[in-house]
């Protein structure tokens, strides 16, 4: 794959010697007791994504993030910072906000009329002199959480003692410093109800062993061969698979069809017919594509390429941020995946899919990767039920749709007495690593 820099915190993601060997048992996916332990020891201690910074353009703009039975408001302050508050009135707990909006006049409790400014301080209260404790205005505040931003996302944590966001994400902010993530535009977004445990997606995105079976459309444009990719793990529980965006040399296309890699080469002024054979086109064409992008990005308006290195210009680092966020970095796209548990049922979760694209001069329509061509403008999130695929026809046949089709069968298999532990290949080492980091949280080692 050529020269690349390995971060000093990188752990070999194909070496099982880096694991303890903790079993991955079915009860982890089905037990309410296990789900409660996740809430008590892990979910209340990590950093969560509330939404995107682009949704908080003006003072008073706010996001509402519901997680299990908790809800958090993140609101843009007058100085440009973002503060996060529990979504509960400090009087008697009434919920203050139900959806993303703007609160130029603060947050008004619909029960007893208390009004809080966007900095969380109580401004007015009915009969404010009728409190034995003294007038609560200016004294009582919404309970605040720590809130920080990275990558164009707004994050918060419920843990006052948690490390900073950058420490928690380390080393991802350093590894992805060349991507102008905050400039990406969200062109397609869905929240999808799935009949599976939330961990299905992290397992799925922690390996590419399934892709040849589940995603046959991928090998023509991403090399899925077992030794082509780098599998990397990091001490905080994050991991990634870096795959070259070139045709697989194992999965050869049928003769006489237009190869998708040909169109990519032509887009950058490279003649795919100039190569003597398929292997040369795949390997040398991939190198020529790097050179063409490096030479011509500016005149073509691909300003997001300015600081990217050769690997980033043509490859796909698919990255899991522990425990439930996956970021798929592509040269022209950024895709956000997230699963979150159902408040009461471990057999259910929601799956967030946000397709983002970097603006390119002269382009007002972009390829969203997962949902086809989309206008280059911020979209609204739609909430759907997967319903065996019928609920999301816009993404039928796409990679993520194929993953969702497998989710329910995987969840049902976790109940079987025939399943006791995963029997993993080396390229699936990160799956067990994820569960071992989760165990570290549940058992008090993190």
Secondary structure layout plus pairing:
Layout: E1 11-12, H1 27-30, H2 32-43, E2 47-52, E3 61-67, E4 70-76, E5 82-86, E6 101-102, E7 107-108, E8 115-116, E9 122-124, E10 144-150, E11 153-157, H3 165-169, H4 172-175, E12 185-194, H5 199-205, H6 211-214, E13 230-233, E14 239-244, H7 260-267, H8 278-296, H9 310-314, E15 315-321, E16 325-329, E17 333-341, E18 349-357, E19 365-367, E20 373-375, E21 382-385, H10 399-413, H11 429-442
Parallel strand pairs: 12-21
Antiparallel strand pairs: 1-13, 2-11, 3-4, 3-6, 4-5, 5-10, 7-8, 8-9, 10-11, 12-18, 13-14, 14-15, 15-16, 16-17, 17-18, 19-20
Describe this protein's structure.
This protein has 446 residues and is of the alpha+beta class. The chain is 22% helix and 24% strand. The chain is built from eleven helices and 21 strands. Strands 1-13-14-15-16-17-18-12-21 form a nine-stranded mixed sheet. Strands 2-11-10-5-4-3-6 form a seven-stranded antiparallel sheet. 39% of the residues are buried.
Précis, in short:
With 446 residues, this protein is of the alpha+beta class. It has helices spanning 27-30, 32-43, 165-169, 172-175, 199-205, 211-214, 260-267, 278-296, 310-314, 399-413, 429-442, and strands spanning 11-12, 47-52, 61-67, 70-76, 82-86, 101-102, 107-108, 115-116, 122-124, 144-150, 153-157, 185-194, 230-233, 239-244, 315-321, 325-329, 333-341, 349-357, 365-367, 373-375, 382-385. 22% of the residues lie in helices and 24% in strands.
């Amino acid at each position: 794959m050529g020269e690349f820099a390995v971060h000093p915190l990188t752990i070999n993601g194909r070496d099982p010697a880096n694991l303890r060997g903790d079993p991955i048992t079915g009860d982890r996916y089905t037990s309410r007791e296990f789900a409660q332990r996740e809430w008590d020891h892990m979910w209340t201690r990590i950093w969560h994504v509330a939404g995107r910074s682009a949704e908080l353009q003006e003072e008073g703009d706010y996001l509402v993030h519901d997680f299990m039975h908790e809800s958090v408001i993140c609101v843009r302050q007058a100085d440009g910072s973002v503060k996060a508050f529990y979504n509960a009135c400090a009087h008697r707990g009434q919920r203050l906000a139900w959806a993303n909006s703007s609160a130029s006049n603060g947050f008004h409790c619909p029960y007893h009329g208390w009004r809080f400014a966007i900095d969380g301080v109580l401004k007015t209260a009915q009969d404010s002199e009728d409190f034995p404790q003294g007038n609560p205005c200016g004294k009582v505040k919404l309970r605040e959480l720590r809130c920080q931003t990275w990558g164009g996302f707004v994050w918060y944590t419920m843990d006052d003692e948690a490390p900073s966001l950058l420490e928690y994400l380390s080393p991802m902010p350093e590894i992805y410093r060349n991507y102008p993530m905050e400039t990406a535009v969200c062109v397609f977004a869905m929240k999808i109800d799935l009949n599976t445990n939330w961990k299905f997606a992290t397992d799925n995105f922690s390996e590419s062993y399934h892709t040849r079976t589940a995603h046959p459309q991928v090998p023509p444009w991403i090399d899925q061969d077992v030794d082509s990719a780098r599998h990397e793990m990091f001490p905080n529980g994050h991991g990634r698979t870096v795959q070259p965006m070139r045709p697989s040399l194992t999965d050869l296309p049928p003769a006489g069809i237009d190869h998708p890699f040909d169109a990519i080469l032509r887009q950058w002024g490279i003649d795919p017919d100039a190569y003597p054979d398929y292997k040369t086109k795949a390997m040398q064409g991939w190198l020529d594509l790097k050179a063409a992008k490096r030479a011509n990005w500016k005149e073509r308006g691909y300003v997001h390429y300015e600081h990217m290195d050769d690997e980033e210009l043509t490859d796909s680092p698919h990255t899991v941020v522990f425990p439930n966020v996956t970021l798929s970095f592509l040269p022209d796209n950024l895709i956000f995946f997230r699963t979150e548990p159902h408040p009461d049922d471990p057999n259910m979760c929601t799956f967030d899919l946000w397709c983002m694209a970097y603006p390119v001069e002269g382009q007002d329509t972009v390829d969203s990767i997962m949902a086809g061509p989309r206008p280059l403008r911020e979209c609204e999130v739609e909430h759907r039920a997967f319903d065996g695929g019928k609920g999301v026809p816009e993404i039928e046949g796409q990679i993520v749709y194929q993953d969702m089709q497998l989710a329910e069968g995987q969840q049902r298999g976790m109940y079987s007495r025939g399943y006791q532990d995963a029997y993993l290949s080396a390229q699936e080492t990160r799956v067990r690593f994820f569960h071992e980091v989760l165990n570290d949280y549940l058992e008090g080692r993190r």
